[in-house]
Structure formats: C-alpha cells, structure tokens
Amino acid sequence: LTSTELLEAYEMLKKHALLDHLWMIHFHIGSQMGDIAPLKKALREAGNIYAELKKRGADSLGAINIGGGLAVEYSQHMHNQERNYSLREFANDVVFLMQDISKRKGVSEPDIFTESGRYIAASHSVLVAPVLELFSQEYTKKGLRLKKVNPPLIQELYDLYNALSRERAREYMHDALDHMESLLTLFDLGYIDLEDRSNTEILVNLIIKKSIALLKDKDSDELKKLQDRIQEKYLVNFSAFQSLPDFWGLAQHFPIMPLDRLDTKPTNPASIWDITCDSDGEIGFNRDLPLYLHDIDVDTEEYFLAFFLTGAYQEVLGMKHNLFTHPTEVVINFDEEGKYTVDNLIEAQNIMDILDDLDYDTYLMDKTLKYNIEESEYLGHEEKRELLGKLYLYLSENSYLKTIQAIDEER
Fold this sequence. Notes:
This protein is α/β, with parallel strands linked by helices. It has 16 helices and twelve strands. It has three domains: 3-123, Alanine racemase (TIM Barrel); 125-313, Methane Monooxygenase Hydroxylase, Chain G, domain 1 (Up-down Bundle), CATH 1.20.58.930; 351-395, Helix Hairpins. 43% of the residues lie in helices and 13% in strands. Strands 4, 5, 6, 7, 8, 9 and 10 form a seven-stranded mixed sheet that branches. The chain is extended.
C-alpha cells in the first residue's frame, strides 16, 4: 500500500471499530536480496510505519512481518560472493532498527516475523546425477586413421604428441591449437578429407589431455587463458529444464561438485550438458568462475555430480520439456550417530504417465499401437509378441538414460 492507502485503510478500520483486529503489518521487497542496503532502507520505512500507526491509536498492533529476501549464497567461489552480509548481520540489523525506531517514537517494540522461504528451503535438496559421456572420450589413439603419407600439419601434430614433455607441454599445446585452426580451414576449403579432419581432432585432444596432465601441478595463468579452448564437455543424465529451471530462466548458477574421487584434484575445465535436445541445456564453462572435473572412463566407472541448494524452488518450477519428469527422489535421514537411512522413495514417472499429464489420450495410443502391430503383415507371431513386450517395457520406464550400474543389475 502507498502512504495514502495506508491512511485510508486505517481510517476505514477505525470507522468500523476494527482497529483491535489490526495486530501485524507485513512487507516483502523481493527474493534473493544480495545487498543489505535496500533491505535496511525497507526496514526503516516499515519500522516508522509501525510506530506511526501505534501512535495513532492502533493499540493491538504488536507485530511486524519483514517478509523474505534473505539471500542464499549460491556461489562456490570465494572471490565472487552473491551476498554481501552474514546471517548475524541480517539479524542484528533487523532487531536493532526495530528497537531504535520504537524507542525514538516512544512505542512498544514489535514481535518480528520473517518468511525467508528460499533461505530455509534451499539446503534441503540436492540433485545427484551420473555423467554419461565425456565428449572427447572417443578421441583415442586407437581411433587414428593415419595414412602412409599425411598432410604436413597432421604429421607434425603426430610428432608433437609423441615428443610431448613437461618442459614443452605449453608450447606444444599452443602449436596444436594453431594447427587445428589451419586444418579445419583446409577441410572447409576441400583440401583435406574426412579422415584427415578426424585425425586432427583426435591428435589435438590427445595433446591437450596429455598437456593438462603434465601441467596439473602448475597454477599457470597461460593454462587458465586457454581453458575456454580446451574445456571438456560432460554429458550428464538430467534435464536442466526439469531439475534446474532457475538456471535456464534466470541464469542462476548452483554449486556443483563431483561425489567421486574426492581425494584427487580435478583438472579438466568442464562444461555440463543435459540430455534434452535443447541447446539451452548447457552449463557453459566460465573462466572467471571455473568448474573443474576429473578425467574418467565412463565405460568402466561411474562418476556422479551433485548440484546443491536446489530446494528453492526447482522441483515445483520444473517442466516436462522433452517428456522428462522429476528424477527419482528419496529422503535421507540421519540419526545422532551420523548413520543414515534412505526413506520415502518416490519413483520418477514413466513415459505413459507423463503423456497422460500432458493430456494425450494414452488409451487410444495404446490401442492403436497394439492394433497396428497385431495387424502387420511383415512380422511373425513371435516377433509381434516380442515387439509388444519391449514396447510396453519402454513405455513403463522413465525418460532418463540407464547407467552402467543399472544395466549390470538387470543382467
């Protein structure tokens, strides 16, 4: 309400003998207030409104609700904090300002209520998802298709890779990246063929990986400058639109870290890609706020990432883009000794349930599929039975991809 509307509301309550029902005033200036200054200004304004109403005769008024706004610290980088105040500073400012204004105005101090929903809820939920693929994992020495006579730049890349040492790693990585630019241009102009381009990509990625491994103990500014060009892309089994909608809609970043290899320093500059078909499902690498992950072989080991502080309010905001539902959920309960139990398992919806939620006629779909298969002239009886079985199995599962462990358990 504006000041004029406040006075009108006060007069209306007084006219109808309802002032004794006015016991709280409430304001809300926004969510995720990273700067304490606007919050303190709003507190002074609300405190003075409270005191003025008390002095006018609102004797039952004894509480003030300061709403939400208490910010969550989403940043995982000490040099780039999103909030410029602590919880103690916030509490001290609220209490002091209410006490000071009440004392100066000669009214009783109010009871203080807060609705810091984001701050309370954010920490209760963590998204855990496995890495499915490293985009460069297909670049192995076995994949090279070298010819008896290769273009000079490709032969030089091969020689650089074989001669790579810690002392020359940075220099050779520069050379490799320059050669790749030249070779890609030659391919676009039609001077080298597809095998040559494939060899280029493989050799450059092998040189980059080997160089990072050799230089991992060096905090090199030069290496940091190259991170945008040598980043690794991690395909992760989740949907940003379903599980991190604030990232997609508001560019809100969440703390991310691996849950495996915690005793090993990660060295790969990483960008994260979800499994939707949408280009917005990418958490890109940022050299100012870098994310580093491990170099792993997803064919032989599982590697999980955790996305923290998703409790406000990612689940309720999530959308079924590409028919992805909420991931399977569990509640982790800890006892006084630190032991935990996994409770209240909620499975992800299957594909038919999602289609039903989106108002598709799943009964008609089921009936049509079954009829078309049974009436097919190209399939035998056993093939029809097997196809129907597989179809119903797939439609009864969720849209997320299966990991190594899940596949092994089925076997």
